[in-house]
TrEMBL record:
A 1,2-diacyl-sn-glycero-3-phospho-(1'-sn-glycerol) binds at R141. Belongs to the Lgt family. This is Phosphatidylglycerol--prolipoprotein diacylglyceryl transferase. It comes from Candidatus Aveggerthella stercoripullorum. Keywords: Cell membrane, Membrane, Transferase, Transmembrane, Transmembrane helix. It is a multi-pass membrane protein. The gene is lgt. The chain crosses the membrane at residues 23-43, 55-78, 98-115, 122-140, 177-194, 206-224, 244-261. Its EC number is 2.5.1.145. InterPro entries: Lgt. It is found in: Cell membrane. It is an enzyme of class 2 (transferase). One of its GO terms (cellular component) is plasma membrane.
């Protein structure tokens, strides 16, 4: 059973002397490495002028954007005033606290910098990044499960998991794994299959679809996921911060996809 598997998991992968390596950190590394491979080979298939130096530039910009944006997003969206009273805690990333929505904003800003440095059109770079991003989401949600965080609502379904600690002793939905499947496997499968078409679909297509799919899946998953304790439900006993932040993603995705369909700009490595 899933609960039996969870009870055998340890958030710490291994320790060497004072160095402790957690599965969460490994998930970040694996996510970025695998995403880099997908981004690079997809760019080659699309015949985008993209070499190893360009890949490293993009990955560095993306990593800085995701980490800085994810942390600042958590402080702003989920801090509930705590970090105003304890500003030094903003730097205490070892205490947890990352926001996908903040990380997404950071990645998009980092993409602007990367596009200028690599001379790849921004929407092409964003499309490539959105095809690769679900891999990182998959590893990240699996790490959330191992850590026993972001658990779901109580359930009597046979795959319920007892997370213990603040989650109590009742079985709960393994909402982390629901999100790993929807946000990671499903979105990647859809975008990767679509990316196989040659010539590739117009610029902005993959970014628009990613935002629509992620926003929709996140809104749905939040119905069986417990809201952050410091915030609770924002309205009506069901609206969460995750749902509130995801709705604009769906709307933005629809607008970007409509723009891509209308303009039909080809994917290009260097603007001519």
């Amino acid at each position: 059973m899933l609960n039996d598997l969870y009870q055998q998991l340890d958030p710490i992968a291994f320790a060497v002397g004072p160095l402790t390596v957690r599965w969460y950190g490994i998930a970040y590394v694996l996510g970025f490495v695998c995403a880099g491979f997908v981004l690079y080979f997809t760019a080659k298939r699309w015949k985008v002028r993209f070499d190893i130096d360009s890949l490293l530039t993009v990955m560095i910009c993306a990593m800085l954007g995701v980490i800085l944006g994810g942390r600042l997003g958590y402080v702003l969206f989920y801090g509930d005033g705590y970090y105003l009273q304890h500003p030094l805690e903003i730097l205490a990333t070892n205490h947890g606290g990352m926001s996908f929505h903040g990380g997404l904003i950071g990645a998009l800003v980092g993409g602007i910098v990367a596009a200028r440095l690599t001379h790849v059109p921004y929407l092409t770079l964003a499309d490539l990044g959105c095809i690769a991003a679900p891999i990182g989401l998959f590893f990240g949600r699996c790490a959330n499960f191992v850590n026993g965080e972001l658990w779901g609502a109580p359930t009597d379904l046979p795959w319920g998991v007892v997370f213990g600690g603040a989650a109590g002793s009742m079985p709960r939905h393994p909402s982390q794994l629901y999100e790993a499947f929807l946000e990671g496997i499903v979105i990647f499968a859809v975008l990767f299959v679509l990316s196989r078409k040659v010539p590739p679909r117009p610029r902005g297509t993959f970014m628009g679809l990613f935002l629509i799919l992620y926003g929709t899946f996140r809104i749905v998953a939040e119905f069986v996921r417990e809201p952050d304790a410091q915030l609770g439900y924002l309205w009506g006993g069901w609206l969460t911060m995750g749902q509130l932040l995801s709705l604009p993603l769906v709307l933005a995705g629809i607008c970007i996809l409509a723009y891509a369909v209308k303009m039909k700009l080809p994917q290009k490595g260097v603007a001519e």
